[in-house]
Prior knowledge:
257 residues; alpha+beta; D-amino Acid Aminotransferase, Chain A, domain 2; nine-stranded mixed sheet; two-stranded antiparallel ribbon; 13 strands; globular
Amino acid sequence: xxxxxxxxxxxxxxxxxxxxxxxxxxxxxxxxxxxxxxxxxxxxxxxxxxxxxxxxxxxxxxxxxxxxxxxxxxxxxxxxxxxxxxxxxxxxxxxxxxxxxxxxxxxxxxxxxxxxxxxxxxxxxxxxxxxxxxxxxxxxxxxxxxxxxxxxxxxxxxxxxxxxxxxxxxxxxxxxxxxxxxxxxxxxxxxxxxxxxxxxxxxxxxxxxxxxxxxxxxxxxxxxxxxxxxxxxxxxxxxxxxxxxxxxxxxxxxxxx
Length: 257
């Protein structure tokens, strides 16, 4: 949330609703009801700016243990968790390693379902922690880059931005915002399969996510990306993203500024 506005809130709620529908929730709160609960929570805690809000929607209380969704008979439970949290990553550049963990293909677990089963990401992060890297990069079953353990990844070479398709990574809201910025500002870009060799030889690499915004990646598997600093396209997109968040968003709270 930036100055009383939540960036791309409706897109987040649309994705939440689509995921709940794919998981066959029998009851899904409408957008206006969820927005009311978010607003009520933010007002109660006097939170206006620099706030990260995490929403979790479950099937609700069960009448007994078991995996059958019919055991959830009390209606859904919505958890609104806001935190005062600045962007979590070092703006000086991140180091990545490639994890041994692979992202599921859609025929195993469709990444378009946004869910709380994050065991792949946790296992990958453990590997990154073990070698002192900031994040872990995950490949798909064909050996192409899917995403990092908690962010989407982008590359640039010869003044063109490219990123993985969403075959094996979630449809990130920040990812889409960056693609929209490329489109609006006539920055050449592609969504396609990306190999590790292409990543190693890229002029620039950066990652994106709600909690981290847009951050340069300067090292991957012990290889320096580009000149080891934030590159010009990454800088341009980071500036455009900051301008976008400062001027747009769903106005959920009034501000005095």
